[in-house]
UniProtKB/TrEMBL annotation:
Signal peptide: none annotated. Residues 15-27 have a biased composition (Basic and acidic residues). It comes from Hanusia phi. This is MutL C-terminal dimerisation domain-containing protein. One of its GO terms (cellular component) is mismatch repair complex.
Length: 318
């Protein structure tokens, strides 16, 4: 998504450069200047940026102007984002109701506001919902099953993992001997995540020639109920896993990712500068701040101004 705004900025920069070197007619130049002012006003970057001479940008109260007419767009690819850069970053403002504009060490970066909030929500949801079940048994806070109530984009959300009894037992068909063995080996973990499985004799299950396993309860994550099929998938995960640490069912992770996405700030949502700053602050505390819940980048370098020399500010008018 950052590519879209990057293309807008690059096209805007090319048009501005052509105007400066006289490749456009006077009437078109005046139209472009008006368009440029509208773009800047529309971006609302920090609410403080004004148009400066030589097509540069200046900040009220600090009138140093950066002359970027010779900037090479390929410079943006020469800077690698790091945690150190992120820790020093501060918000300039919001652009086009889509992106957070941040700067540190003279590098200007665009942040996808939806991806940023999605990452923040994902890690918060994982902490509140999953952490109690991944902690050592003596430290598990079972009371956390009741969940916490939070306000999301679509109203109040209950961050929880609860159990949902099925209206009628569901037989697990097609379960192999190896999966049955895996189930017995991980019986406690399976029940910990909210699945409840019972073994019934052949007389209790029609068309069964031996004892069968039936699912009588499944987990429900933030109001979304899992299915017995999700248990089969989890058994396969357990069977194939070489890790000794507790596993989270992929079905539960998918629901949390979906909820993190659907409840996040969207493109087109106007954000005041203090909310932009709060998002950046929360992102700095994330374990994986550079990718969203789906693995896509949350940000992209736009301008590397480390080699750009400042020019003198014009005298104040009047």
């Amino acid at each position: 998504a950052c590519q879209d705004l990057l293309a807008e900025f690059e096209e805007f920069s090319r048009k501005r450069s052509r105007r400066e070197v006289g490749h456009e007619g006077a009437s078109r130049s005046r139209q472009g200047q008006r368009s440029k002012r509208q773009d800047i006003e529309k971006a609302g970057i920090g609410g403080e940026l004004v148009e400066g001479s030589s097509s540069s940008l200046a900040r009220r109260g600090n009138v140093e102007i950066l002359n970027i007419q010779h900037w090479n767009a390929s410079a943006k690819t020469q800077f690698a984002l790091t945690r150190e850069w992120l820790s020093n970053a501060s918000i300039i403002g919001q652009a086009f109701n889509k992106f957070l504009v941040a700067v540190a060490d003279n590098v200007l970066v665009l942040m996808d506001q939806h991806a940023v909030h999605e990452r923040i929500r994902l890690e918060a949801l994982e902490h509140e919902i999953l952490s109690p079940f991944l902690a050592p048994p003596q430290k598990r806070a079972r009371s956390r099953r009741s969940g916490l109530k939070r306000t999301g984009r679509h109203g109040e959300e209950e961050w929880n993992l609860q159990t949902s009894p099925l209206p009628a037992p569901v037989r697990l068909d097609g379960i192999t001997k190896s999966l049955r063995t895996s189930m017995k080996a991980h019986w406690e973990m399976i029940h910990q995540w909210g699945f409840k499985v019972e073994e019934v004799e052949k007389d209790s299950v029609p068309s069964s020639s031996s004892s069968s396993l039936v699912v009588v309860q499944v987990p429900s994550v933030m109001g979304v109920q899992l299915s017995p099929t999700d248990l089969l998938d989890f058994l396969q995960e357990l069977h194939e896993s070489l890790s000794s640490t507790p596993l989270v069912p992929q079905a539960i992770r998918r629901i949390i990712v979906s909820k993190a996405c659907r409840g996040a700030i969207m493109f087109g949502d106007p954000l005041p500068r203090d909310q932009c700053s709060q998002l950046l602050s929360q992102l700095k505390d994330c374990s994986f701040p550079f990718q969203c819940a789906h693995g896509r980048p949350t940000m992209m370098p736009l301008l590397d101004l480390r080699g750009v020399a400042p020019c003198s500010a014009p005298p104040p008018a009047g």
